[in-house]
Design brief:
With 172 residues, this protein is mainly α. The protein has one domain. The chain is elongated, with a radius of gyration of 19 Å.
Length: 172
Amino acid sequence: MSKRPRLASRLVIGGIAGFVGTMVMTSAMRRMHRHLPEKESYPLTPREIVDSAKDQLAIPLAEEATKDATTLAHFAYEAAMGALIAAMNPDPRKRGGALAGGAIWLASYMGWIPAVGTLEPATKHPARRNALMIGAHLVWGSATAAAIRELRLARETIFARGEDRDVPPEPR
């Protein structure tokens, strides 16, 4: 690849890639969730976080609005994490992305989420649910890294400056 994009470009690329990775992650979460035993198949962490925040802030939200808030918060958080990854490494490999996803899980589920009193640390969650969420974060990181690389390649090829052959000529 050519020269390293400026920080603002890496943030844009990473945010988009994190959003894309979140779609892949969400699909994996949904598929893995249906294999949990019935007593562990309650809503996953993004919904639990929104419910907890709603309760802590005494925000009344209808069910549809809560689903929307959960979806928005989940995608926004992971887009921000994708931007952070691209800012630190503009050319991540899938393995490095997966490791970054695992680090984000660790920092979130054992760090800031219990620290702010939103949920208990992961050590107090069922092992299968932790395995599901760790796996989903590894998938997210790998997909996000691949998307970062693809977007960087697109910037250098199909989005780069060149002759515009499909644009009508200027009138004389």
